[in-house]
Amino acid sequence: MKTKIDDITIIDIPKIVDPKGRGKLSVVEKNIIPFSIKRVYYLYDVPSDSYRGGHAHKKLLQFMIPLSGSFEVLLDDGVNKKKIMLNKPDKGLLIPQGIWREMDNFSSGAICMVLASEHYDESDYFRDYEEFKKSKLN
Ligand code: TYD
Fold it and tell me: Which end of the chain is more exposed for a tag (fewer CB within 10 A), N or C?
């Protein structure tokens, strides 16, 4: 898992603005992300003083979209760290495997939707930071 901070990208999600002013429609199709979606989950009702995440994945790729509100994502490849604020429903964050992440500073009503490349599998998680760091040395 040689993935690095620079492998994390913000992807523009195509947006159709209604010509009659009835709002916007964004669509995620297979051609904008590098995996087939096997699972969709979302975080909501997250208290503003809580954090989520605190793990990395061995194989799973994820595309994270702030459907509503905002939150911050701390990303860490074991050497370098980066913090990204997600607050636009037409901009998603592509997180490859082997990246530690923590999400916090959820605004009121924030919804974090995640499109995932695999089904849920607890054995795909690194939940221990030291174990994650060791895996990056291989
Ligand atoms: P976790 O991935 O740790 O959530 P977060 O990163 O947002 O803090 O998952 C929280 C709990 O939910 C954990 O017990 C596993 C369970 N879970 C599922 O059963 N299926 C899923 O698809 C996900 C993402 C989590």
Answer: C
State the catalytic residues: 55
In the chain, the domains with their CATH numbers are 5-135 (2.60.120.10)
- Is the pTM for the entire model greater than 0.90? yes
- Measure 21 CA to ligand 1 centroid, in angstroms: 38
Question: 3-state DSSP call for residue 11?
Answer: strand
- Position in ligand 1 atom list of the atom nearest CA 52: 8
Measure the N-to-C terminal CA separation of the chain; round to a whole number of Å.
Answer: 8
Nearest-5° Cα angle at 56, 49 to 70: 35
